[in-house]
Amino acid sequence: MTDDFASRLKAEWFGNIRNDVLAGLVVALALIPEAIAFSIIAGVDPKVGLYASFSIAVLVAITGGRPGMISAATAATAVLMVTLVKDHGLQYLLAATVLAGVLQIGAGLARLGYVMRFVSKSVMTGFVNALAILIFMAQLPELTNVPWLTYVMVAGGLAIIYLLPRLTKAVPSPLVCILVLTAISLYFGLDLRTVGDMGELPSSLPVFMLPDVPLNLETFMIILPYSAGVAVVGLLESLMTASIVDDLTDTRSDKNRECIGQGVANLATGFIGGMAGCAMIGQSVINVKSGGRGRLSCFCAGVFLLFLIVVLGDWVAIIPMAALVAVMIMVSIGTFSWASLANLKSHPRSSSAVMLATVFFVIATHNLAIGVLVGVLLSGIFFAWKISQIFRVTSTLSADGTHRTYIVEGQVFFASADDFLASFDFKEVLDKVTIDLSRAHIWDISSVAAIDMAVLKFRREGAKVDLIGMNEASETIVDKLALHDKPGALERLMGH
User: Fold this and answer.
1) What are the residues whose beta carbons fall under 8 Å from the beta carbon of 133, sequence distance 6 or more?
2) Which end of the chain has less neighbouring CB within 10 Å, N or C?
C-alpha cells in the first residue's frame, strides 16, 4: 500500500515537472485579469478574487481528485453572490463561502460525485459548447471600441499560438504569446489596454481572518440560499470539467474526492478574504494544451499567481489585454466541439435537441446549473419515451375459448403503464387469464399499480388470473407493493 501511494504521489506531482511548471505560469498570467473581472462581477475589491484564485488553486491541487485541472475564482459562482454583496456586504460573502465549502465537503462524503453518471454525452457536449461561446463572448468588451492596433495584436498573438508549435513545443505557445506581445507593446510604447487597467493589484500577502458576521440563526438563514447555490453550481462545473479533462488526457478522476477538495478549498478561502470558486474549463484547457498534466501545474498556477501580483505586480500590470484575449480565444476555439455541428445530421434528433437546449439555456441564463439541469431532464424524458416504445403485449386463446394468455415484452414503468393496461380486453368472457411476464421487467409503483388494476378488472369480470414468469427483481417489488391479493384491494387501489 505504501509503495502504491508513493508511486501515485510521484506520478501525480513529479511525473511531468517541466511542463507542469511552465503550464502553471501560463495559467497564472491568464488567471489575473479573469480573477479581477470576476471580482468586479461580484461587486468586491479585485484582491478578493485574486486571493481566492491563489488559495483555491493551491488547495485543490493537494486535495482535489483530478490532477491537471485548474480551480480558482469563477464567473459561475461570482454571479450568484452579487445580490448578497449588494444587500449585506463583503463579510457575508466570506461567511457564505465558508458555508458553501462545508456543504461541498458533505456532498463528497455522501458520495454525490457518482451523479455524473446520469449526465449524458449530449449534455456534456452542450455544456462544453456553451462554455466555449461564453468564453468568447467574455472577450468581446476587449474587442469593441478599441484602437485598431488591438486587433493587430490579437491576430499576431493567435498566429504565435497556432504557428509556434509547428516549429517547437519546448515552450508553451500561449506563454510566448504573452511575453512577445508585452515586449512589442513596451518597445513601441503602444497605447493599449493593460492588466493594470482592470483594477489595482494587491501588494501584500493574504492573512487569516474570521468573517465579521453575527454567529446566529438569522445570519445562517441569510447566507444559506447563496451558499447552497454556490455549492451546487461549483460542484456541477467542477465535476463536468473533471470529466472533460478525463477525456482530454485519457485518464480517470476521483469525483467524490474532487467534491471534498473543492469544499476544503472554499472553506479555507473564506478565512483569508477570498470568494468561493470552482474548476475552470477555460483555464483547465489552457493548462492541458500547454502540457500540464499533474497536480504540480495547478499548485504552481496558484503560487505563481500570488508571486506575480505581490512581487511582480508592476510588471504584470503592463501586460496588454490583447495578449490574454488571444489566449482566451484559443481556449474558446479549442473547447468548442466542432464535430458536434457535423453530428447534428447523423445523431438522433433527441440527442441533438438535448445538446442544443443545454447550449441555449446556459447562454440565455449565464447559469451553468440551469442549462445542465434542462439537458439532464430532457435526456431523461427522451430516454423514458424511447424505452416505453420498446414494449408490446401479444396474446393467445386456448382451443376451447376459455383461457387467454397475455405475453408481455419490454419494460413496464410509468411511461408504459397506460399502454400495458390498454393491451387487455377486460370485456372478453373468459374463465382464466394468464399474464406471462417472463420477457418483461417491472420497475416502479406505477407499473405495479397497472398490474393490480389489470388483475382486479379481470377478476371483476369473473376470470381467474395468474401472474407467471416474473424475474426476481420484479417479483420483489410486486410482492412488496401489490394490492390485488389484499382485502379491499380495489377500494385501496382507487384511493391512491
Assistant:
1) 332, 336, 359, 363
2) N
Distances (CA, A) of 292 to 16, 162, 243, 284: 8, 18, 16, 9
Mark residue 437 as left, alpha or beta (left: phi above 0; alpha: psi -120 to 50; beta: remaining).
alpha
| Number of separate domains in the chain | 2
pLDDT digits (tens, 9 = 90+) for 242-261: 888 888 888 888 889 999 99
What pLDDT is recorded for position 395?
92
Single out the residue in 315, 344, 373 at which a domain terminates: 344
Give the residue numbers spanning the domain of 461: 391-494
Q: What is the pLDDT of residues 309-331, one digit of tens each?
A: 888 888 888 889 898 888 888 87
Confirm whether 409 is domain-assigned.
Answer: yes
List the grid coordinates of 218.
Answer: 438569522
Where the chain has pLDDT below 50, the residues are 1
* DSSP letter string, 129-171: HHHHHHHHHHHGGGTSS--HHHHHHHHHHHHHHHHHHHH--SS
Instruction: Reduce the DSSP state of residue 279 to 3 states and report it.
Output: strand
Q: How far apart are CA 123 and CA 380, in angstroms?
A: 11
* Residue-level pLDDT at 491: 58
In a domain, 349, yes or no: no
φ, ψ at 64 (rounded to 5°): -70, 170
**3 state SS of 277:** strand
Dihedral sign for Cα atoms in the order 346, 352, 355, 356: positive
Q: How far apart (Å, rounded) are the C-alpha atoms in residues 188 and 126?
A: 43
Q: Which residues contact 202 (CB under 8 A, 6 or more apart)?
A: 46, 47, 50, 51, 309, 310, 313
d(CA 425, CA 419): 12
**Residue 427's domain is classified under what CATH number?**
3.30.750.24
The Cα–Cα gap between 242 and 279 comes to 8
Say whether both 313 and 397 belong to one domain.
Answer: no
- 365 in a structural domain: no
Helix axes 121-139, 321-335, angle to 10 degrees: 160
What residues contact residue 200 under an 8 Å CB cut-off, 6+ apart? 46
For residue 484, the model assigns a pLDDT of 66
pLDDT of residue 233: 82
